[in-house]
């Protein structure tokens, strides 16, 4: 946060604490969204939900791809590591 020097400052205590109060406010906002009159808000909520779902889905696939790539690199490293050690040890004498 801007101009907060330590966690003992008042604004830092607000940022790091009051989680019960923050969750109650969040639940109230989520509940209150159902009581907004339908004057175009349903379309806006649908678009926001589609964009959010798209981003969550793409993030899921990105993490899955990174995990598969990591596992494949571990497989290749374990498969070729003895060959690499052999070439390092005896490569000049071949």
Characterization of this structure:
The chain is mostly helical. It has 2 domains: 1-35, no CATH class; 38-94. It has helices spanning 10-16, 19-32, 41-90. The longest helix has 50 residues, at 41-90. The model has no long low-confidence stretch (mean pLDDT 88).
| Helical coverage, percent range | over 70%
**Radius of gyration, whole Å:** 27 Å
Oligomer: single chain
Rough outline = elongated
Q: What is the structural class? A: mainly alpha
Helix segment tally: 3
- Report strand %: under 5%
In total, the number of domains comes to: 2
Give the number of DSSP strands. Answer: 0
Distance between the termini: 61 Å
Major pleated sheet: none
Order of helices and strands: HHH
Q: Which regions have little confidence, pLDDT < 50, spanning 5+ residues?
A: none
**For the residues shown, what is the average pLDDT?**
88
Write the layout of secondary structure elements.
Layout (H helix, E strand, L loop, with lengths): L9 H7 L2 H14 L8 H50 L4
What's the short version?
This protein is mainly alpha-helical and about 90 residues long. It has three helices and no strands.
